[in-house]
Design goal:
Number of helices: 3
Largest sheet: 7 strands, mixed
Low-confidence stretches: 1-24, 26-93
Distance between the termini: 116 Å
Structural class: alpha+beta
Strand content: 25-35%
Number of strands: 13
Radius of gyration: 39 Å
Mean pLDDT: 74
Length: about 250
């Protein structure tokens, strides 16, 4: 074979080798690019995970005609309790006002605004701020019949249940302003005497919302000495005096 023939025979081999080398370089470059892209994506995912983790570590924001004649009597601890105002109960406005203290409230049952219903009656309990500074009420008062206007006076029957059909709201009282809560009193005559054990109650023991000191209101009711019948139900406080026909 001649020299030119041998060169022609080797040329395809050289070209094939060059093409193979070029292909390997292209594959290597592509692989490096993929590695860089994978590394970038891995970094991005890690950063996103870090941000998400930081976000999840942030703490969540936090979780009883003229008015009736009445008498309000506080226990001996009321005066000392009134000297250290407490903040509003949980769920209030958090406006910094003190809870309305029993010793600074005039409590009355307004018989002129009583509403009758089948087998029961609704009485407005009015709370008037008699202090020289503002205070706040939130939620339900605690109410029960009492044998006497003192702590020693025993409770008669069951304490008032809370009517959850109405939402609790904060009520701010400036001096001389009034809030109210409706008290539903079921007639004791609705129950058999053996179940009710009927008696006459002459006092209501009332704890304003957020208070542990009771006030007492003189009023006569037919009551059950047994705790089985639940005669009393109370609604949350609302602003102003209770007016017949105006629902909370």
């Amino acid at each position: 074979m001649s020299t030119s023939s041998r060169r022609s025979a080797r040329a395809p081999i050289t070209m094939t080798t060059s093409l193979a080398r070029g292909a390997r370089r292209a594959i290597a470059a592509s692989t490096a690019g993929q590695v860089r892209r994978v590394a970038w994506l891995t970094g991005a995912v890690a950063a996103s995970s870090l941000v998400a983790a930081c976000g999840s570590a942030t703490p969540s924001q936090p979780d009883a005609a003229p008015a009736a004649t009445v008498t309000v009597t506080a226990s001996p601890s009321a005066a000392s309790a009134a000297t250290s105002p407490a903040t509003a109960p949980s769920g209030g406005t958090g406006g910094g006002l003190a809870v309305c203290r029993t010793a600074a409230l005039h409590i009355e049952v307004d018989d002129s605004q009583v509403q009758g219903a089948a087998g029961s009656a609704y009485y407005p309990l009015n709370f008037t701020n008699t202090s020289g500074s503002g205070c706040e009420m939130y939620g339900y008062p605690g109410v029960s019949f009492a044998a006497a206007p003192t702590r020693a006076g025993g409770q008669i029957g069951a304490a008032a249940q809370r009517n959850a059909a109405f939402a609790k709201t904060s009520v701010r009282l400036a001096p001389r302003q009034t809030a109210h809560a409706w008290l539903q009193v079921t007639a004791a005559a609705n129950y058999p005497a053996a179940t009710c054990q009927p008696v006459t109650a002459h006092w209501l023991r009332i704890y304003p919302p957020g208070e542990t000191v009771a006030g007492y209101v003189s009023h006569t009711f037919g009551a059950c000495s047994s705790t089985s019948p639940a005669l009393l139900s109370v609604l949350p406080v609302r602003a102003g005096q209770g007016v017949a026909g105006v629902t909370p």
